[in-house]
Write a structure and sequence with these properties.
Elements: H1 2-52, E1 55-60, E2 66-68, E3 73-77, E4 81-88, E5 93-102, E6 114-122, E7 127-134, E8 140-149, E9 153-157, E10 170-174, E11 195-200, E12 206-208, E13 217-218, E14 224-227, H2 231-238, E15 244-251, E16 256-259, E17 262-265, E18 274-279
Parallel strand pairs: 1-8
Antiparallel strand pairs: 1-3, 2-4, 4-7, 5-8, 6-7, 9-10, 10-14, 11-12, 11-15, 13-14, 15-18, 16-17
């Protein structure tokens, strides 16, 4: 009898446990369905709001600073974020961010109309992703990058490939001021050996020619660099054994410009790496003197030497 009672008691306990589990499972399922139902309602509400939101036509313009990854023109919904991706031209520009302007001739800034939130960036490959939200109903807007251009050599003189006198200076013009106005000669990055002057002889030996030039000097604006030969020493180096030498001018990677908290490297291209050909002769011809006078007669080049003396003043 005791054994039978024990079996019945165990069976009763099992039934109670199963019943409790079933109730709990039912409650859990009901709660889960309730939460799912709430999510579905939220999604439906968002879809309805998105459908009813005003539309804005957005044009993308990289302006030579890289490229937008996607369509050049899209339609955004006011109040809803859209992903925008931009790849910067990392050889020429430092990326600062994105900006929105009115897509008209004035390009009026729309700072209060658009919000940019950085989502992800891959600086190695120069790719930047932003969540862009139109805050106000704007019919036409333009999104473009804001970047800083790297400094570069825009011109140099004299020209390459033509023999120059040994006392001919080299002038190199940059796209922007390369130093602060108060930078001293000792503080300047533009000194040897950051400025390379190399002559390669016929057996491929490289000769550092910086000793044959004065120290580099900038103009007041810090945009034009002047390299003046020590003409006698340079002429003696060339001597009588060779008609001329080609001196290669280039710049070290240490040449940078500090701007808006960024370090901008000098852009390396054919204009920042060039050659000047020097011969041993020096230019010694003095400037030609010309007589100057004023006259009341009409001037013609054909008869300028025959003005009447009384008309000269």
């Amino acid at each position: 009898m005791n054994r039978r009672s024990a079996i019945l008691k165990t069976l009763k306990t099992t039934i109670l446990l199963l019943g409790g589990g079933l109730v709990a499972l039912t409650c859990f399922t009901s709660c889960e369905n309730f939460l799912k139902g709430a999510d579905v309602k939220k999604q439906l509400d968002e879809q309805i709001a998105y459908a009813n939101a005003p539309s804005c036509s957005v044009t993308f313009s990289a302006e030579g600073m890289g490229e937008f990854l996607g369509n050049k023109k899209e339609t955004f919904k006011v109040g809803f974020a859209s992903l925008v991706q931009f790849k910067v031209n990392a050889e020429s520009y430092a990326f600062l961010g994105l900006e929105a302007v009115a897509n008209n001739a004035e390009y009026t800034p729309l700072t209060d109309s658009v919000k940019f939130e950085e989502a992800e960036k891959d600086e190695k490959n120069g790719i930047y992703k932003y969540n862009v939200t139109i805050l106000k109903d704007t019919k036409e807007l333009l999104i473009r990058p804001t970047c800083l251009a790297f400094p570069e050599v825009v011109s140099y003189s004299p020209i390459s490939g033509v023999e120059q006198y040994a006392n001919t200076p080299i002038e190199i013009t940059f796209s922007m001021p390369m130093e602060d106005p108060e930078t001293t000669a000792d503080q300047s990055l533009f000194k040897y050996p950051n400025v390379y002057l190399i002559y390669t002889d016929s057996v491929k030996n490289n000769h550092d020619m910086s000793a044959y030039f004065e120290e580099p000097v900038f103009d007041v604006e810090k945009k034009k660099l002047r390299l003046v030969p020590k003409s006698v020493q340079l002429s003696n180096f060339i001597g009588n054994t060779i008609p001329s030498i080609d001196i290669a001018i280039s710049f070290a990677s240490e040449i940078v410009v500090k701007k808006e908290g960024l370090t901008l490297p000098l852009k390396q291209n054919e204009k920042s790496n060039f050659k000047i050909r020097y011969k041993k002769d020096m230019e010694e011809t003095p400037p030609e003197k010309k007589a100057f006078f004023a006259t009341g007669d009409e001037i013609h080049l054909s008869d300028s030497p025959v003005f009447k003396n009384k008309k000269k003043t």
